[in-house]
Amino acid sequence: MATLNKEMAYQNADYVIFATPTDYDTQCNSFNTQTVDAVIRDVLLINPDTIIIIKSTVPIDYTKRISSSHQTNNIIFSPEFFT
């Protein structure tokens, strides 16, 4: 079932797999991970036990840092070019 309602989408999910834009800023030499951060925050608020799989391009060690900041081991990075 498709939905735009994040509560409905996340509340009973075993896994949440997502990819959002992470535009690379050549001036700052960094990726903009705001949309990734927002999805992770929403998922953890609604269903802290679900496994979160990031398919977006993120900086090296991003998953380790974000997992630590949210005190969870449920965040996994799977490069977008892997199937």
From TrEMBL:
InterPro entries in the record, alphabetically? NAD(P)-bd_dom_sf
- Top-level taxonomic group: Bacteria
Know the name of this protein? Answer: UDP-glucose/GDP-mannose dehydrogenase family, NAD binding domain
